[in-house]
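Exercise 7. Given the encoded structure of a 539-residue chain, write a plausible sequence.
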């Protein structure tokens, strides 16, 4: 048991640092306040503290880092107000299945009955239901064990955030020893259900695989690709997949399902057996009927998420890790299906040059210019169909976005991804509306000198709101246009060079400059304001 640096009895603070070292929690993302100072006192040199200038940025940076490394990340927030500021990105982390251990400062225990300043009433309940587990330990001595418990649950599938509220006077209390434990992260699928799924797929004439983020999250992409090739099955990416689903230059890849019931039914209508791997069945954004569920088409779902399995309105759900389920399924299938493979997807035509620049041409330019190993982190939801058509993601681990739809995630997440994948260029593609939710993350990227290219897709407003106004027949809605923002000036104010780009020739030069720059650079690209209908059909 470690002893306090001043020679006294072992303390909670020193015991927590030992737990953190044992668990590999040696990078902490935070935005601290006074209730966290006893934790920060005499900070150890072997643990890195990454300062974010807003609590939401701290959570998203930790999320990006955890997802990029495949390990839990630690986040340090300030009392109730800190959690309140961070709730949007905490909800996103929950939907992203990002394994986070969040510690939150609390007022001193002696003051809690008096409703003190900075006191958090029912601190453990505040973030629920968007944490897997949360606690304010009844005794100071239990804090180190609570953090170990939180880590084990965060890393048990489905991954997700956990939270421990810690009164500020607990850190100096005497500690309890923490006995290291090993807990299995994964569950194997039911062999009988896997056999039933294999039989249905082998019998099908036109099978399709709908892929979600759990596949890439578990490093099971090669197993999924081998299964698709063995089946000669078409592959579609599930609605709102927050990671890469399948190599988009592969001949079996057929595109993306839109997040509307009718569009999903239309997209899956040519197929007679549906395998959903690592995704819900299905995530929708608009209401409507999905005839697929009543048509009797066999639907099999592989997932490690019990809630996603329970929510599916039709088919057979098989709980288990992708790294177990996909090879087990492939082992029961013939080496090569006799059926013909689906024809490759027809490339989307590129619109002609114009002013303002069509977004499609921006994404095509990024594809041509970015390094082969680059990682794309995206939050430009109104332009996502254009991005999907013209910026194909071809490498596993090469794409991240938010599963929740909550804005303000992807810019700080790109900082975390760049930290988690050192040496790889990260391209953050962010809408102008999204950019203002967490622009403070630029400062953190500059402080660490990260290889980050920030592309602001600037259409002068909330493009998704324009699109939904069309969908819903809404006219003249206020609060959609966003004018008068000088993103390069804002970036320069935080030490990041910035360029405003309005022509294709200037874009190519600016992209080349940014990719040659080893530190952050921002490009504010002015694009056409026309926004397509987002959910009409698969793309």
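Solution.
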């Amino acid at each position: 048991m470690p002893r306090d640096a001043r020679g006294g009895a072992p303390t909670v603070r020193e015991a927590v640092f030992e737990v953190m070292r044992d668990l590999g929690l040696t990078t902490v993302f935070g935005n601290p306040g006074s209730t966290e100072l006893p934790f920060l006192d005499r900070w150890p040199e072997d643990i890195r503290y990454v300062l974010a200038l807003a609590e939401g940025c701290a959570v998203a940076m930790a999320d990006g880092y955890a997802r990029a490394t495949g390990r839990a990340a630690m986040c340090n927030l300030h009392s109730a107000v800190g959690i309140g500021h961070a709730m949007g990105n905490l909800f996103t982390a929950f939907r992203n299945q990002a394994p986070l251990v969040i510690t939150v400062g609390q007022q001193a225990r002696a003051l809690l009955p008096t409703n003190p300043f900075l006191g958090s009433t029912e601190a453990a309940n505040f973030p629920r239901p968007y944490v897997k587990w949360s606690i304010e330990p009844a005794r100071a001595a239990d804090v180190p064990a609570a953090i170990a418990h939180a880590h084990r649950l965060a890393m048990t599938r489905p991954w997700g955030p956990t939270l421990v509220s810690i009164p500020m006077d607990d850190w100096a209390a005497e500690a309890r020893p923490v006995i290291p434990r090993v807990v299995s992260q994964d569950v194997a699928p039911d062999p009988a259900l896997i056999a039933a799924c294999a039989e249905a797929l082998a019998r099908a004439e036109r099978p399709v695989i709908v892929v979600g983020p759990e596949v890439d999250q578990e490093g099971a992409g090669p197993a999924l690709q081998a299964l698709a090739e063995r089946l000669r099955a078409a592959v579609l990416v599930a609605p709102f997949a927050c990671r890469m689903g399948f190599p988009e230059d592969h001949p079996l890849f057929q595109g993306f399902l839109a997040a509307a019931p009718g569009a999903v039914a239309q997209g899956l209508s040519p197929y007679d057996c549906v395998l959903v791997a690592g995704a819900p069945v299905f995530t929708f954004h608009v209401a409507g009927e999905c005839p697929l569920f009543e048509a009797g088409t066999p639907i099999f779902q592989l997932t490690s998420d019990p809630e996603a399995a329970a929510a599916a309105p039709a088919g057979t759900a098989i709980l288990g890790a992708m790294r177990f389920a996909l090879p087990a399924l492939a082992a029961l299938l013939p080496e090569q299906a006799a059926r013909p493979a689906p024809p490759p997807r027809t490339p989307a035509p590129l619109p002609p040059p114009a002013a303002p620049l069509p977004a499609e041409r921006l994404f095509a330019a990024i594809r041509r210019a970015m390094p082969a190993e680059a990682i794309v982190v995206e939050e430009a939801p109104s332009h996502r169909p254009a991005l999907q058509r013209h910026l194909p993601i071809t490498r596993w681990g090469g794409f991240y976005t938010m599963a929740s739809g909550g804005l303000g995630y992807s810019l700080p997440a790109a900082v975390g991804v760049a930290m988690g994948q050192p040496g790889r260029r990260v391209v953050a593609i962010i809408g102008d509306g999204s950019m203002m939710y967490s622009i403070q993350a630029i400062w953190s990227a500059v402080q660490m000198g990260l290889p980050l290219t920030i592309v602001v897709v600037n259409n002068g407003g909330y493009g998704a709101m324009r699109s939904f106004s069309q969908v819903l027949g809404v006219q003249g809605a206020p609060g959609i246009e966003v004018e008068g923002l000088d993103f390069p000036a804002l970036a320069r104010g935080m030490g990041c060079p910035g360029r405003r780009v309005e022509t294709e020739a200037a874009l190519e030069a600016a992209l080349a400059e940014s990719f040659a720059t080893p530190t952050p650079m921002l490009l504010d690209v002015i694009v056409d304001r026309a926004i397509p209908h987002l959910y009409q059909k698969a793309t």
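Remark. Residues 1-6 have pLDDT under 50 and may be disordered. Students should compare their own answers with the one above.
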